[in-house]
Amino acid sequence: MLPPALASRLMPLVRCLDPETAHRAGLLALRLGLVAVTSTRPDPRLRVSALGLRFANPVGLAAGFDKDAEAIRPLFGLGFGFVEAGGVTLRPQQGNPRPRVFRLAEDRAVINRLGLNSAGWAVVKRRLARLRAEGPLPGPLFLNVAPNKDSQDPLTDIAHVVAEASPLVEACVLNVSSPNTPGLRDLQVGERLGALVSAARQARGQAKARLLVKIAPDLDPKALEAIVETAIAHGVDGLIVSNTTIARPPSLRSRHASQAGGLSGSPLFAPSTALLREAARLARGRLTLIGCGGVSSADQAYAKIRAGASLVQLYTGLIYEGPGLVARILAGLSARLAADGFASIADAVGADLVEARA
User: Fold this and answer.
1) Residue 188: what pLDDT?
2) Is 39 a known active-site residue?
């Protein structure tokens, strides 16, 4: 087995493969146990209580890496405090034609237009049921749920998955922000978002799965305010801020910069963190916020926490930094808490907002 740090050193070789082949190879290596479980002793200062759940640390894997729940337990072994599987659709769908994933190496970024390729809920449900039968997981499991591209009734389709998934996961994430499914981002808007959340809450029934909404980074202030207020009014537990962006910063240097799709990685860090900070200001503690977008270092993870995130997620950073990234971020967070005199992650959440008001 390869220790995560050594596996990280091999990432330049993996990147010789096309992005989708490299992704499949990484999943296979995890499933076969070729990447060793991290041996890092957990720092109790990194423990987080959020959403009524307990996390060994605040760093989670974002949706998109393990779409079909193939390697959940090995992913926890890398040191993640929580893992988000999916996005899953009710019915299987192939997604968009290839090529549909592009590395922007000069920009430490990726553009994807996968189009929510999914094995479908029936396959994922069987895997989750088997996973739960094997025993407890080291941390909470989230499931990202989205409608099929050809769905005639997105709300009903999402509610169907939420109803059956709620006993199997700790949180269902309503994906209303992927830029690669036509019309999906319309579900973020006012009454449609309220109707979706209401349908999902009713479908959840007595199960304890939390309901989260993942939003786009390309929102104007009025749209963000409407989403926050709608989420609070309809009993959403939290927001994930944010998904990939359709914007193309002028600083991009890669020849792939003009490809269509959602941009993730380093260029997304600043806009997604600014949106997170504004969401935290608007929510005033009434929603749990999860910061996602451009995290590839402890400094960036800590910046999102100080901006108002109780938890953070990453994915694209793994592509460039390798699986050892998780342990490096955790060590760095411990050091930053100590330097700032904080006894826990909770003490640091929203610290920048507090200082700005002082």
Assistant:
1) 87
2) no
